[in-house]
Amino acid sequence: MRLLLVALGFAVAVGGCAGASGPPPEGEPVVVRIWHQKDAAERQFLDDWAAAYNASQDTVRVETLYKETEELRNHYVFAAIGGKGPDLIFGPADNMGTLGITETIRPLDDLVDPAFLAGFTDDGRVTYDGHLYGLADQIGNHLTFVYNPALLPDPPATMAELAALGSTLTRDTDGDGDPDQYALVWNYTEPFFFIPFLTSFGGWVMDDAGNPTLDTPETVAAIQYVLDLRDRYGVIPREADYETAKALFRDDYAAATIDGPWSWGGYQEAGVDVQLSPLPVNEQTGLYAQPMAAAKAYSLNPAVPDWKLPTVLGVLELLTGDAIQAQMARELATIPVRTSVRESGVMQSSALLRQSLAQIEHSRPMPTEPQMRQIWDAMRGPYQLVMNGQVSAAEGARLMQEQAEKRIADTFLN
To answer: Where does the signal sequence lie (predicted)?
Structure first.
């Protein structure tokens, strides 16, 4: 664990609360503190909920604090190891491995009412190493095919149809010899945005033991397909980072993009009639291009004392219950993980929600193993070398595997 903590970042002095004192004086509320990394709209929703909840009674006061994802994980780990920090932490499911291995979150298996727990979909119960460590209020963070029906009335159903779009939708409209309108743009040089194509060829990032599985024929075939979209079929630009891709789609210079829930509202505000479609099927393998999807969940600080535990668990159930998930789905277009809400009329209230759920049904859970962070870092450099033409797809896959194995060994082996 020592090397893992070093890898997480530098130690910080963090004020704490979870186990810092006994019950409050009579007449004073029990304070439940939450650290989270919700985005702007969700952050406001949570703050408004906490304000309304606090005003509705005087026995419990919920306090929330926003932190960026990396800051949240690093600050929380060091605080919790010292018996401090918030009572609850909210973040993506892929944090569970790091928090579990550092023993900075407490298993919920025997703490949550079984009847309440049974109301979650499988993806709403976040586990690591055989234990329940998080209860989610949503699942998402998934990529999907986002298109402008004014430019692309019928989204591609197969990878061959996607490749064929280059011949009809990528155009040089001003005659300068370079395309200025594209069939598709997306941040294809970033590994997270490559995952759907990896899965469509039958590849994956790790095995069940957390060992990287990157140097495979499936990885090579997936990389080559992305290269062919650019170099052979002219579907995508020669270069496109995330901001460039977003601007091209927003400003009608591209018929489609591949992006996640965090982006859809911005496209709509810019006047794009955003429609979503599941990423296409690879007819060679019969597999959908499956993005990673991640639940976002609340976890419990082990330092929460016994006298406070029932209150904290009560707040946890409120924050992940049917009422708040239904409200979030209506107002924020998040995908609920309570079975009753997902099967309710709420999901029929928005075409975007239904389309988003269709992609969730063709996705793979983001691994909760702590090695995932090292694998992301190991993939990035070699993958971008391939995209820059400096190494072949096969050499890129080999280098990804080699660097992933080294990073994992350096981090986790004492």
So the answer is: 1-20
Buried-exposed string 382-411: b where 16+ CB fall within 10 A, e elsewhere: bbebbbeeebebeebbbbbbebbbebbeeb
Closest of 124, 8, 32 to residue 315, by C-alpha: 32
Calpha distance 126→352 (Å, rounded): 25
Q: Which amino acid is at 91?
A: G
Beta strands 144-147; 254-259: pairing state: antiparallel
Q: Which residues pair with 125 in a beta bridge?
A: 135
**Burial class (CB within 10 angstroms; exposed 0-12, middle 13-18, buried 19+) of 332:** middle
Distance CA 243, CA 247 (A): 6
d(CA 387, CA 179): 19
Q: Does residue 259 sit in helix, strand or coil? A: strand
Buried b or exposed e, range 112-136, using 16+ CB within 10 angstroms = beeebbebbbebbbbbbeeebbbbb
pLDDT digits (tens, 9 = 90+) for 257-311: 999 998 998 999 999 999 999 999 999 999 999 999 999 999 999 999 999 999 9
Which candidate, 259, 254, 262, places its Cα nearest to that of 291? 259
Site of tokens 């709420």: 346
Each residue of 223-245: pLDDT tens digit? 999 999 999 999 999 998 999 99
Sorted by where each starts, the structural domains of the chain and their CATH numbers stand as 13-140+294-365 (3.40.190.10), 144-290+370-412 (3.40.190.10)
Among 329, 285, 95, which Cα is nearest to 196's? 285
Residue 248 CA: distances (Å) to CA of 181, 332, 376 = 8, 25, 26
Backbone torsions φ then ψ of 31, nearest 5 degrees? -95, 125
Task: Classify 406 as helix, strand or coil.
Answer: helix
End-to-end CA distance of the chain: 8
Please state at what angle helix 217-231 crosses helix 191-200, rounded to 10 degrees: 110
pTM above 0.90, yes or no: no
- What is the 3-state secondary structure of 77-135? HHHHHCCCCCCEEEEEHHHHHHHHHCCCCECCCCCCCHHHHHCECHHHEEEECCEEEEE
| Residue 273 one-letter amino acid | D
Element (H, E) at 299: strand 292-300
DSSP state of 348: G
